[in-house]
Amino acid sequence: MSMTNGISIFFAALFSGFLAWSVLDSRSRDQGGREGLRYSSFLGGVSLPVLLLLLPFFRRYISARGCACLWMLPNILYLSQAGFMSQNHPIWIISLPNSLLKPLTILWLAGFAAVLLYKLLEHFVFRAQIMRNAVPVQEETVLALWKQEQTNAGFAKPNYKLLCSPAVKTPLSIGLLKLTTRVILPDTEYSPEELRMIFRHELVHICRSDAWTKFSLTFCTAVCWFNPFMWISVRKSFDDLELSCDETVLLQADDDQRRRYAELLLKTAGQEQGFTTCLSASASALRYRLKNTVKPRRRRSGALTVGLVSFLLLITCGNVALAYETGSGRDAIFSGLDPAACTLSSVRDMNVSSHRTYICTDPERLMDYLCQLPVQKLTGNYDFFEDSPSLVLLYDTPKGTLGIDLNDHSVGVTRFWGEHISQERLSLPEELDWDYLDTLLPQMPAVNIRLTGPDDTNTDPASIDTVTKISNGRSELLTEPLPDESWTGIYGNIDFQTMELEFPEPPISHVQVTMYSWDWSRSETLTLHTPDQVIELPSNALHLKIAASFDGPNGSIYETVFRYEIQADDSGSQ
Question: With contact defined as beta carbons under 8 Å apart, do 567 and 489 qualify?
Answer without folding.
Answer: yes
